[in-house]
Amino acid sequence: MKKNMALYVGCGLLLFIVFCAIFAPWLSPHDPYVQDLTNRTVPPIWYEAGTWAHPLGTDQLGRDYLSRLLFGARISLLIGLSVALISGLIGTTMGMLAGYFGGRIDMFVSFMVTTRLSMPVILVALATVALVGGSLWVVIMVLGLLKWDRFAVVMRSATQQVRAMEYVSAAQSAGASTLRIMLTEVLPNVLPHLIVIATLEAASAILLEAALSFLGLGVQPPLPSWGLMISEAKAYMFFSFWLIAIPGSALALLIFSINLAGDGLHQFFTPGERA
Amino acid sequence: MLAYITKRLGLAVLVALTVSILAFMLLYLSGDPALAIAGEGARQADIDMVRKTYGFDQPIIVQFGNWLLKIVQGDLGQSIYFKTDVGKLIFTKLETTLLLAIYALAFALVISVPLGVLAAIYKNSWIDRLCLAVAVVGQAMPNFFFALILIMLFSITWRMLPVSGSDTWQHFVMPAITLGYYAAPAFMRLIRAGMIEVLSADYIRTARAKGLPTRSVIFKHALRNAIVPVVALAAVQLGFLLGGSVVIETIFALDGLGYLAYQSITHKDFPVTQVIVLLLSVIYILLTLASDIANAWLDPRIRVA
Amino acid sequence: MKNSSTAFKAPLAKFSLRSGLLACALAATVAFALPAHAGKKNDTLGFAYDQTPENIDPYFNNVRIGVIIAANVWDTLVYRDPNTNEYKGQLAKSWKQVDDRTLEFDLREGIKFHNGEEFDADSVVYTLNYVSNPANKATTQANVRWIEKAEKLDKYKVRIIMKEPFPAAIDYLATTVAIHPAKYYQEVGPTGMNLKPVGSGPYKVIEHIPGKSLTLERNKDYFKDSPKAQPTIGKVRIRFIPDRQTQMAEVMSGGEDFIMHVPKDQAEKLKSLPQLQVESGNTMRIVFLQMNTREGTPAPQLNDIRVRRAIAHAIDRESILKNIVGGGQIINSICTPSQVGCTSEGVTTYKYDPALAKKLLAEAGFPNGFEVDIMAYRERQQTEAMINYLNAVGIKAKLSFMQYAAMRDLARANKTSLTHQTWGSNLVNDLSASTPVYFGGGSDDVSRNPEVIKLLNEGDNSVELKKRQELYQKALAIIADQAYAVPLWSLPVYYVANKDVKFKPYHDELVRFWEMSWK
Questions:
Q1: Is A275 domain-assigned?
Q2: pLDDT for B73-122, tens place per residue?
Q3: Which domain holds residue A211?
Q4: Within 10 A of C7 (CB to CB), how many other CB atoms are there?
Q5: Which candidate among A58, B231, B270, C91 keeps its CA 20 to 30 Å from the CA of A217?
Q6: What is residue B186's predicted lDDT score, i.e. its pLDDT?
Q7: Which helix (H) or strand (E) holds C248?
Q8: Does the distance separating the beta carbons of C403 and B164 come in below 8 Å?
Q9: Residues of chain C neighbouring B224 (CB-CB closer than 8 A)
Q10: d(CA A151, CA A93)
Q11: Could you tell me which residues are beta bridge partners of residue C92?
C-alpha cells in the first residue's frame, strides 16, 4: 500500500499536541495564571531581551507564555473534542434514523437540517452566549447544539448506502431488532465517514471559539484558550508580534494537523480515491 | 417542472416559518422584554404600561402572529437602542454586507477555479497536493488574525490599501480576501472533481483524439460543464458569507448587517436581532431554492426525486 | 451514472461568466461615493472613535464621544474655562443668583443656530423644560432632574428655577446643558435631532450616517463673543471604528489624524514612529470596584463587611497603576480629586495586604474563598489584573465583558455582583456629579446606605461651601469605612495624532476641535 503521508503526519502532529496537553502541568515551567506586573511582555528567547526563565516570553500581565500555551492546548482540544462529540451524537442519530427508515422520518430530518442550515450560526451563537453569559461550557454546549448538520447529512447518505447491503437484509431476516442492526451492522460501516466529519467539525469548532473570544463573548479570561490568547494579543500585534504569532501558529498547526489526519483517514478508508 | 417548483416553494415557506418562530423566541431568551424596553430603573407602572403597549401580556402565539403579520406588511419594528425604524436601519446596512459577500465570493472563485483546474489536470501529483494545500492553508487561521496581518502588510508596511471603511472598492479588497478564502477549498474540490469527471468523458477523449489542442479542449468544454455545480454551491455559499461577516465587519469598520447584529446583540436590542436573523435565513432559503430550481432545470431526473 | 453530465448542461453553458463578472464590477463601482480623505491637504481632521452614540442629541446618549460632539456642535449658557476654572458667559451675557433656587440670565443677541433659527429665551425655555420632563426620558437624569422649570421674562431674559437649592447648577449649565433651537426641536424631537443635528456651536453637522460617520464643518458665522475660540480647521470627519487596532493602523498609515484612548503600552510604542505624536492627559474619570449589597443581591457574601474589606486589601493598586494604567493617580474616595467637595481626609484607606485579606475571608466564613461574578465594559486589562489578585486570595471572579449600557441596565436591575466601574462625571467639576450617582439612592446605587444618602442629598442642596464640604466628607468617610466600593485610580488618556496636528490635551478628556489647527 502506498504510504499514506497525510495520515502519518497528521496523526503524528495531533498526538504531539495531545501529549503536550496531557502533560502540561509537568512540562510548564510556571503556573499559567500567576501574573507578574513588573515583567510584562518579555519577548521570547530568540530576541535580544529574551530570557530562559521565560522561553516563549510573557504576556501583557506577565504570565509565562509557554505555560499558557501548553495549558491552552487542553482547552482547545477539549473544545474540539466535546463539540465534535455532542454534535456528532445528535447528527449521527438523526442521520442514521433518516437513512435507515427513510419516508416520513427522512423528510422530517431533512427539514430540520435545512432549517438549521438557514440560520446564521455565528449570530445565533453570539446571541445565545450574550444572553446566557460566556464560559467554556456554554460555548461548548452552544456550538455542539448548532453544528450537527454535516453529521446528519453525511451519516444519512452513508446509512442509505449501507442499508442496501446484503448483510443488513440478512440480519433483518434473521430477526434481529432494529436497534441491534443499527448498532452492530450499520454503525461500524458508517464509522469511517463519521470520523472524517468529526475531524472537520472539531477544527471548525476551535476556530469558532476563537472568533467568539475575539468578540468578547467566548471563553472568559483568565482561561488560556488559544483563541482568547490571540484576541488578547491583538492589541500588541504591531509591536510585539510574537504575542499573537505564537498562539496563532499553535492554533494553525492544530487545525492543520486535524484536517490532515481527517484527510489521511479518508484515504485510509477509501483507498484509491482522493478527497 | 411546475410540480417540482411548487413542492420546493412549499418546503421553503415551511422552513422560513420555522426559522421565524425560532428568531422570535430569541426575544424570550433575554428574560422579560418589557423590562428591557422600559429600562433605566423604570417603575413597575412604567413596565406594566410598556407590557400593554407592546402586547407582551398576550399569549405568545398571539404575539408571534402579530409580529409575523407586521413583518409581512413591512413593519419591522422599532430598535430599542437606536430608537429608529428597524427596516430603515437594516436597509442602510444591507448594501455594505451584500457587496462584501459578493466580493468575497468573487475572490473565492478567482483563486479556486485555477487551482481546481490545475489540480484536476495533474491529478494525484504533487501539483495536485500543492493546490489543495494553498486552498486549505487559509482555513487554519482565525479570520481576524489573518485580517490584521493583511492590514499590517498592505496598509501599514506597503501603504497599498486603506485600512478601514467602505468608501471605495479598495476598501473591500482585504475584507473580501479574509471572508472569501474560507469558502475557497470547497469550490476547489468541487471544480477539481467536476473537471476530472468531465475530462475523462468520452466526448473529450474524442476531441483529443481528433487532435484539438488541449487548452481549447479544457477551457471551452470541460470548464464550462464543470462550472455548473459550482454555480449552485455559490448561491448557497453566498448565504453563508452573509451570515458570517461579523468579525470581518468589526475589524474593517464596515458598517454592515453583521456589525449591526453584533451591536444589537450586545445592547440586547432584540427587535433588531430577530429581524436580522430572519432576514439572513430568508435570503439563504431563497438562494438555495433558486439553486435547486436551476439544478432541476438542468437535470430533469432531480425533479422526480 | 458517471456519464450523466454531458447532455443537460448545454443551456447554462451559454452563460458567460466573464460578462457576468464585468456587470457586477461596474455596478459596484457606481455604488461608491467619492471618499473624503483626511489630512492637512484636505483641511479635514480625521478623528476615529470606537463607540457610536445611540443618539447624537446630547441629552440622549451617555458616551464620551457624545459629550465631545456636544461641546463642538452646541453651546451652553455659561462656559467653564478649562485653564482657570472660572465661569464665563457664552450664550448668556451675564447672570445673577436671584435667590437660593433661582438663577437669572441675560442672553446675548444676534446669535443664530446652524439652520438659521434665531437664539433667544424661547430656545432656553423650550430645551430645559423638555429635557427635565421625566416623561421624555433623557438618558442621564442627573444632568437635568435638578431643574424645576425655565421661565421666559423677556426676549433675552430667562430664569431657571431649581427644585431645591443646588449650587452645582452653574457647573451643569456650563457643561452638559446644551441649548437646542426651540422651533426645530419641537418639530423633530430627539429622533430628528439625531438625524440632522442643529446647534449653535463652532462646528455644524453636514452629514450624519448613523453608526458610520459624522462630518462637521467649520461654522463661519460662529459668534465672535464666545469664549470658545473661532474654529480654524475646515472639516472634521468623525468615523466610528470599533476595533482599537484598526484605529491604530489607520493613524499609522495616515488614514486618520487623531485617535484617543490608546492603551498605555501601545501609546508608548507609537511614540517611536516619526509621523506621529503622543500626548497624555489626566482625566476626570475615576475607576472603582462596586459591590452590590442591595437586598436580593446575587452575591450575598458581599453583605459581610469583612468580605468587602478583604476585597479592598487584595488588590495591589499601586502595581496596577504603575504597570498597566500609566499616568493617573490612586484615589481613596469615590470622587474625582479636583471636584468641589471631594476629599480623602479622615477616610479609611486599605493597603495591599493579601494575607490580611485571606484572614478576613476566613473570619467571615470563607476560608477557601468563593465564586463571584464581575462585570466590566472597558479597561479590560485592569479588570483582568484585579481578577488575578482576587484569585490569589481565593476569590474566583468570573468575568462578563459587555457594553456600558448593558452593564448599567443589569446593575439597575440588581443582577450584578462586582462591577468594574468608571465615571467621568460628564465633566462637571462638582462632587454632586459623581458620588451621589452611585451612592445617593438613585437607580445606579447598589449600596443604599440611608445615612450616606441623607448626607449626600443635604450636601447637594446646601449653598454654603464649607457646610457642603463637611457633609460630603462625612458621607465619603462612611463609604470608605464600610468599603462599599474599592476606590482605585483616575485614568489617564493617551492621544495619538499625526504630526501635522496642533492640539493641547486638557484634563477633562474633551477634544476641542475649535482650538486645533494644522502645523
A1: no
A2: 888 888 877 778 888 888 888 988 999 999 999 999 998 888 888 888 88
A3: 5-269
A4: 9
A5: A58
A6: 82
A7: helix C244-253
A8: no
A9: 9, 13
A10: 9
A11: C107
Q: Quick one: angle between helices B270-298 and B60-73, nearest 10?
A: 60
Q: Domain for residue A274, yes or no?
A: no
What's C164-215 look like in SS3? Answer: CCCCCHHHHHHHCCECCCHHHHHHHHHHHHHHCCCCCCCEEEEEEECCCEEE
Number of domains in chain A: 1
Q: What is the pLDDT of residue C20?
A: 47
Contact criterion met (CB below 8 Å) for C342 and C333: yes
pLDDT in tens, C211-257: 889 999 999 999 999 999 999 999 999 999 988 889 999 999 888 99
Residue numbers of A between 196 and 225 with CB closer than 8 Å to B? 203, 207, 210-211, 214-215
Chain A residue with CA closest to B141: the answer is A252
Contact B84, C60 (CB under 8 A): no
Of A34, A37, A130, the CB nearest to C320: A37
Interface with chain C: mutation pick from A33, A61, A126, highest number of C CBs within 10 Å: A61
Of C3, C29, C239, the CB nearest to B201: C3
* Buried b or exposed e, range C110-136, using 16+ CB within 10 angstroms: ebebbeebebbbbbbbbbbbbbbeeee
What is the arithmetic mean of pLDDT over C412-418? 91
Q: Please judge whether B40 and C412 are an interchain contact, meaning their C-beta atoms are less than 8 angstroms apart.
A: yes
ipTM: 0.79
User: Averaged over A60-78, what is the pLDDT?
Assistant: 92
Does the pTM of the predicted model rise above 0.95? no
Beta bridge partners of C44: C39, C235
Residue A31 lies in a domain: yes
CATH code at position A38: 1.10.3720.10
Contacts of A252 in chain B (CB under 8 A): 140-141
pLDDT digits (tens, 9 = 90+) for A133-167: 778 888 899 999 999 988 998 888 888 887 777 77
Distance from CA of C43 to the nearest CA of B (A): 19
The predicted pLDDT at position B38 comes to: 63
Q: Could you say which of B22, B141, B258 has the minimum Cβ distance to residue A252?
A: B141
Peptide bond into A221 cis (omega under 30): no
CB atoms under 10 Å from CB of C466, counted, come to 8
Give the residue on C whose Cα is nearest the Cα of A130: C402
Tell which wins on pLDDT, C158 or B196: C158
